[in-house]
Q: What sequence folds into this?
């Protein structure tokens, strides 16, 4: 992955530096409004990362010791860690092979009377079937880890539209980046107010408001956090948001070319689900059973000059979750140990993609009868 950054982003950040207001301020507020409008939410609350956003979401819902939160193990470890930050227990549900996402059946299988929330992940930008999952959860709140999903669609609208609470990432590996940073979106105005307080030490009046209104004696309403975004990041984000449709369109064109080149090899790879479209934040390929071990394939690709990565990790296989109880997770383990993420960024040429697919074919000992 290479973020699509240019002179416009550099100029926006420079202008912010020259303004003298570099911490959370007017540009953050503007970015919050613009991003929320883009995804079809009433409110946006900028934060320092998606991880801190997930923590705030669970804290807001009152998740704590003795509670369980259903999450996929097949996700970056921050998804499960946010549950632990609250003192609660992450309960790992399996995913489906085609999307890497939770399904109504895999969620329903692990719901218990202790389930306080269900956290779905739009994995690698592939939208999860949120409506179907909500239908099996009843009164249990469903929150969305939309870290990778800016620019993805579901049911004809943006991922995040109508979400109870959704958390987003703007890390450089995402299609929209602010360097670091994140956002929480919601339609609930009271939650938005409290989230803004929670991200800023529980203050009753933000620093920006104090600056505008003159002397104010703020109060600290509860024990809270320092999870703010800077105006420098927001300035970059505003430029990136304007460019997002074009970025996603180009990624989808590159993904279509990958599908064309991979077809003769008979390999399964990530694609749109029937109810939405992916931004192809990650393009993963499932290795056949007879292929060499994953690390050997990655080394072969590296020797050919291809910087590929293992597929999406499984938290329950990591040392941090050793001994953590969980049921069978066969699809999760297959995707985590038998998939490869191929390079996908705006600088890829047609020749690059042919080289990558040829190198993959050689690594798994399949003839690259690739369309030229």
A:
């Amino acid at each position: 992955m290479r973020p699509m950054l240019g002179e416009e982003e550099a100029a926006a950040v420079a202008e912010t530096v020259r303004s003298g207001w570099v911490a959370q301020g007017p540009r953050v507020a503007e970015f919050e409004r613009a991003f929320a409008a883009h995804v079809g939410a009433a409110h946006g609350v900028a934060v320092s990362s998606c991880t801190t956003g997930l923590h705030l979401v669970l804290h807001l819902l009152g998740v704590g010791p003795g509670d369980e939160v259903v999450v996929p193990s097949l996700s970056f470890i921050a998804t499960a860690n946010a549950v632990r930050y609250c003192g609660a227990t992450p309960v790992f549900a399996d995913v489906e092979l085609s999307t890497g996402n939770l399904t109504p059946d895999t969620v329903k299988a692990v719901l218990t009377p202790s389930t306080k929330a269900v956290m779905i992940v739009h994995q690698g930008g592939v939208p999860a079937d949120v409506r179907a999952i909500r239908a099996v959860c009843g009164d249990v709140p469903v929150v969305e880890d939309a870290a990778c999903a800016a620019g993805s669609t579901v049911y004809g609208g943006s991922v995040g539209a109508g979400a109870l609470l959704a958390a987003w990432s703007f890390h450089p590996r995402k299609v929209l980046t602010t360097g670091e940073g994140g956002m929480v979106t919601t339609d609930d105005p009271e939650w938005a107010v409290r989230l803004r307080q929670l991200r800023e030490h529980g203050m009753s009046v933000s620093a920006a408001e104090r600056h505008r209104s003159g002397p104010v004696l703020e109060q600290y309403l509860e024990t809270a956090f320092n999870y703010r975004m800077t105006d420098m990041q927001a300035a970059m984000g505003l430029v990136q948001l304007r460019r997002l449709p074009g970025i996603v369109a180009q990624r989808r064109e590159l993904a279509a070319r990958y599908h064309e080149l991979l077809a003769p090899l008979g390999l399964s790879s990530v694609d749109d689900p029937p109810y939405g479209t992916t931004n192809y934040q990650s393009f993963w390929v499932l290795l056949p059973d007879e292929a060499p071990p994953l690390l050997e394939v990655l080394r072969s690709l590296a020797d050919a000059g291809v910087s590929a990565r293992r597929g999406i990790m499984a938290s329950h296989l990591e040392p941090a979750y050793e001994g953590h109880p969980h049921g069978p997770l066969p699809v999760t383990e297959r995707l985590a140990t038998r998939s490869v993420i191929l390079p996908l960024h705006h600088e890829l040429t047609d020749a690059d993609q042919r080289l990558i697919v040829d190198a993959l074919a050689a690594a798994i000992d399949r003839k690259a009868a690739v369309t030229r």
